[in-house]
Structures are given as C-alpha cells and as structure tokens.
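Fold this sequence, please.
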Amino acid sequence: MKIGPALSATSRERCFAIRRAVFIEEQAIPEAEEWDELDAVATHFLAWDDAGPAGTARLVARDGTAKIGRVAVMPGHRGTGLGLKLMRTVLRHAKEQGLTAAALDAQTYAVPFYEKLGFRPEGEEFDDGSGILHRRMCRNLQAEKSPA
C-alpha cells in the first residue's frame, strides 16, 4: 500500500471518487454537503495499491492547526489498518509543515479510532449538516511520539 499527497489532478480525482463512493453513495450524505471551497486549498492524501484507490483524507492548514477531514476508506480495505496508516501519514505531514495541533470532526462511531491516534473529544455531539452526529476532536502535534 502506498500513501501520500495527491499531487496531480488525476490523483485528486481518485480522492474525490473515494469520497463519492463512501460519503455520497454509501452514507447518503447529500452531494451539496460533501463538496466545498476547501477542496481547492486542501492537501489531499491518497492511499492506493495495485488494485486501485483505497483511501483518502484532506488537510487544511489554518492558524498553526491541521484541520483534517474527509477521511474515507473503501469497504474492501476496512479492518486492515489502512485508516491508521493513512492518519499517521497525514499527521506526520502536518508536523513536518510546522503545524502544532490537529483537529477533526469525527463521526461519533469513529471516536475510539481517533482516540488511538491521540485525539481527545471536545464538546457535545453535533450534526454537521449531513444528518450524521459528529464530535470535535483535537490533539497536540508537538508531543515526542505519536500514539498508535
């Protein structure tokens, strides 16, 4: 499995295809909720193997914080550890860029997954407009060693 920033238009389109399959088709999130202006300025990450695209995430740097979102893994790759590898790659990239914190809005079922990576829940659950409950999570990137 290879994981890295999606630097070409083709690799970004593969990221968007994963998001369409997971969020719009599988989770029935309205298309208007999935795409936003941050897609143009985000660093998108793509995980792939010989069989094709497997996972994606995006990072938007703002005021020293890495806002991570749109984390998706294709069904055939779930339960393989790909999600952890993808997130570790994104967090390492954020730290290398000099960002000092990371934040994300996790679907509530995924809170334990992100806790394994050192994220801590903040505030109450909320609906981000997709009809799915989320929880804000944050972590410090200046720690010596990343968990998990």
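Helices lie at 9-26, 31-34, 82-96, 111-115. The CA atoms of residues 65 and 138 lie 10 Å apart.
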